[in-house]
């Protein structure tokens, strides 16, 4: 009977260790996901601003050259 309890205790400890590892990994993934989403938002804003600047430059160039 003691062997059975020892075996079960060891398995339970292994499961708990795996649970802790998975929980840590999940936390790290969630943190990375949040950071990536934030970076994506910043890049989208930069992209939008770049498009606005390029469109503005094209408009100015057309006005300088007298193109329609």
Uncertain segments: none
Q: What do the pLDDT scores average to? A: 94
Q: How many DSSP helices?
A: 1
User: What proportion of the residues form beta strands (DSSP E)?
Assistant: under 5%
Radius of gyration (Å): 29 Å
Classify the secondary structure makeup into a structural class. mainly alpha
Termini Cα gap: 92 Å
Give a short synopsis of this structure.
The chain is mainly alpha-helical and 68 residues long. Helices cover 94% and strands 0% of the residues.
Describe the structure.
With 68 residues, the protein is mainly alpha-helical. The protein is built from 1 helix and no strands. The chain is rod-shaped and about 95 Å long. 0% of the residues are buried.
Topology:
Layout lengths: L1 H64 L3
Features:
about 70 residues, rod-shaped, 1 helix, about 0% strand, mainly alpha, single chain
